[in-house]
Amino acid sequence: QVQLQESGPGLVKPSQTLSLTCTVSGDSITTNYYYWSWIRQPPGKGLEWIGYIASTGSTSYSPSLKSRTSISTDNAKNTLYLQMNSLKSEDTAVYYCARGLYYPDVWGQGTLVTVSS
């Protein structure tokens, strides 16, 4: 059974950097040709795709977030990372990692990140 678990700080101050971790179990992030996505949902709004990293290591980002977002992995730990710089209040959201790109089939439970001073 594939499971994804996000973790990170619940509260970040404006202009600071957010670092989130997604630990994957039950599947390898490198041996199958999957996309591993980060997605977020602001309060009262719809889902917003942030970006992905493929099992090959290639990445792609939402144009609106590309300048301040980075997705990486630690293959030995089977873990994904999301880093987002220069946080704003509008970045307040539940952040999810998921397996897949257009229709992810496995999701983490999500972690709430609040950007506030």
How do the helices and strands line up, and which of them pair or pack?
Elements: E1 3-7, E2 11-12, E3 18-25, E4 35-41, E5 48-54, E6 59-61, E7 69-74, E8 79-84, E9 93-99, E10 106-107, E11 111-115
Parallel strand pairs: 2-11
Antiparallel strand pairs: 1-3, 3-8, 4-5, 4-9, 5-6, 7-8, 9-10, 9-11
Structure description:
The chain contains no helices and eleven strands. It is mainly beta and 117 residues long. It is globular. The mean pLDDT is 95.
In helices, the fraction of residues equals under 10%
As a percent range, the share of strand residues is over 45%
Distance between the termini: 39 Å
User: How many strands, which pairing sense, and closed or not: the largest β-sheet?
Assistant: 7 strands, mixed
Q: Would you kindly provide a brief summary of this structure?
A:
The chain is mainly β and 117 residues long. It has no helices and eleven strands. The relative contact order is 0.32.
Which terms summarize this structure?
117 residues; mainly beta; four-stranded antiparallel sheet; seven-stranded mixed sheet; globular
